[in-house]
Design goal:
By secondary structure, the chain is an alpha/beta fold. It has a domain of 141 residues: Rossmann fold (3-Layer(aba) Sandwich), CATH 3.40.50. It is 51% helix and 12% strand. The protein is globular and about 55 Å long. The structure holds iron/sulfur cluster. Iron/sulfur cluster (SF4) binds next to helix 4, helix 5 and helix 13.
Length: 372
Amino acid sequence: MKSLEQIFEQFHSIATNPKDAFNRYLEEGEKVVGCVPVYTPKEIVHAMGLVPFGAWGADLELAEAKEYFPAFICSIVQSVLELGIRGEYEGMSALIVPSLCDSLKCLGQNWKYAVKDIPFIPMTYPQNRKADFGIDFTVAGYQRVIADLQEATGATFEPEKLKESIKAYNKQNALMREVDALMAQKGVMPTQRSDVYKSAQFMKVEEHSQWLQELIEVLKKQEDAQHDGKKVVTAGILADSSGLLKIFENNQIQVVADDVAAESRQYRIDAPTTDDPLRDLAVKFAEMDHCCVLYDKDKKRADLIVDMVKEKEADGVVVVLTKFCDPDEFDYVMIKRACESADIPHALIEVDRQMKEFQQAQTIMEAFAEML
Ligand code: SF4
């Protein structure tokens, strides 16, 4: 049996070297499809025998992408385009971009002009996703994705295969939820926790699930954490910057739960399993909630964060705000108010994909840790 360190090292190596994983798939003759966040239908890509590969950008200096975007647009979409222009995705069969915020809509249009050799496939989601007409609209969007994938890759779609893919992703969801709870209980460090989530973007679902099972087995044998530091819940779009995670660790802060789009939010909801798998996927999307890019007039996300803090007996909330992300900036006001009325300490850290200096974040977290 592998040791805990060996298992975490596996996750770390994929999370920090996605390009190696990408190249390996190409060498093995696989067709890789880029999946830009959030809620890209990976199940469909998988069911068609293609490899869904996360495209959340990377921490890098932006140069070429600046010709296509104004400066005040989030660095996630800018860095996805930058990677495309630099040829880092060479060999990718297509890139699926969902329509869930204005920045993503611009990305798709710019991609068509800037990266001509990788087809852009739009996934258009409805704002009113829960009503029957919303579910029909989502199904129509998926059908368009299937048709575009067929054209780009020559792959075929069969509903029976989608049923199997949905089961594989539901299984991964369940394992992720179990691992998340165990990592909190056993005091797993923020970098290791982040690697478990991040690596999932670049691995085949079956392989990642296998690793999760190994991790669960070993974690269950560990003593519960005797944690002298502080416990927090994180919230935001992306919280995987190594500089930021080190600051958490230097200040003995453990992440015991998150409401981060790139982390546990991906794994909260399972698709139903009926005889109409495309509709099952649309129902899964309809049941997604508590997210800044999904329409919710009651903004229940703020209450969810407060509930997480109470359930995990956390000491506070750290909002990791991606600069120029309008949807998350709007939600921050609600989160701040909810934390204040529940007497929960909270801190705000702004991040972007070009960040090299973390002094400001360091100062904020040092002061926050002392306050908790
Ligand atoms: S939701 Fe925010 S972070 Fe994500 S692509 Fe849109 S603006 Fe960028």
